[in-house]
């Protein structure tokens, strides 16, 4: 498997990957609606690519298996989306994409990675916690992360939490 920066021509596949990844939620009745949810827009993908904050995992046949995209927020790299095609999940692709984001953040001398995710979905907060992310208590939240969580709640996403990985 190769991890490389995403390119503009990858965008239709990135959207297909996010749709496929979201099908994992179909097995959880309370969140099954997410399986049919909206995916990141073309313009958003373009912005992540143009700011050199989007990476894809590609197999030996040149098929894209997953992607991670992020945005720079001061000295933090905020992960906007991590998605792995349903058939490729559970094989280490997600971890490998996180490794890339961490490596880039270190090279750019950033202080931390942040993200928001579902606290109770096994492949969300527990997955990031095993990777080394820590759950942030409400008093630790920056105004930026509080605003992200508030916006997610306003869009009907309940049970979200913020996490961070502080880089040494
Ligand atoms: C979250 C996601 C990106 C992880 O990618 P992945 O390639 O499946 O993850 P990996 O194979 O690297 O596995 C990492 C860990 O997650 C666990 N995991 C993966 N899929 C899982 C599932 N469906 N249920 C429970 N655990 C799961 C693995 O067992 C592994 O455990 P470990 O940390 O003890 O080794 C992927 O499952 C996905 O796209 N899910 C749907 C979209 C989503 O929820 N994205 C995250 C948004 S915040």
Description:
This protein has helices at residues 11-22, 42-50, 93-107, 125-131, 143-154, and strands spanning 2-5, 54-58, 64-73, 76-84, 112-118, 134-135, 160-166. By secondary structure, the protein is an alpha+beta fold. The protein has one domain (2-166): Aminopeptidase (3-Layer(aba) Sandwich). β4 (76-84), α3 (93-107) and β5 (112-118) form a beta-alpha-beta unit. The protein is globular, with a radius of gyration of 15 Å. The chain starts with a strand and ends with a strand. Bound molecules: coenzyme A. Coenzyme A binds at residues 21-22, 24, 82-84, 89-95, 117, 122-124, 127, 130.
Structural key phrases:
single chain; about 170 residues; alpha+beta; Aminopeptidase; about 35% helix; globular; binds coenzyme A
Write the SSE topology:
Layout: E1 2-5, H1 11-22, H2 42-50, E2 54-58, E3 64-73, E4 76-84, H3 93-107, E5 112-118, H4 125-131, E6 134-135, H5 143-154, E7 160-166
The structure holds coenzyme A.
């Amino acid at each position: 498997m190769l991890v490389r920066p995403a390119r503009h021509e990858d965008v239709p596949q990135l959207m297909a990957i996010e749709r496929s990844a979201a099908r994992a939620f179909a097995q959880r009745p309370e969140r099954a609606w997410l399986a049919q949810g909206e995916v990141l827009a073309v313009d958003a993908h373009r912005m992540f690519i143009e700011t050199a904050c989007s990476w894809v995992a590609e197999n030996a046949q040149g098929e894209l298996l997953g992607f991670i995209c992020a945005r720079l927020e001061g000295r933090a790299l905020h992960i906007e989306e991590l998605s792995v095609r349903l058939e490729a999940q559970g094989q280490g692709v997600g971890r490998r994409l996180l490794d890339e984001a961490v490596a880039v953040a270190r090279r750019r001398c950033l202080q931390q990675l942040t993200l928001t995710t579902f606290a109770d979905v096994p492949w969300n907060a527990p997955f990031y916690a095993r990777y080394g992310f820590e759950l942030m208590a409400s008093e630790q939240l920056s105004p930026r992360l509080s605003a992200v969580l508030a916006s997610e709640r306003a869009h009907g996403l309940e049970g979200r939490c913020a996490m961070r990985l502080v880089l040494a």
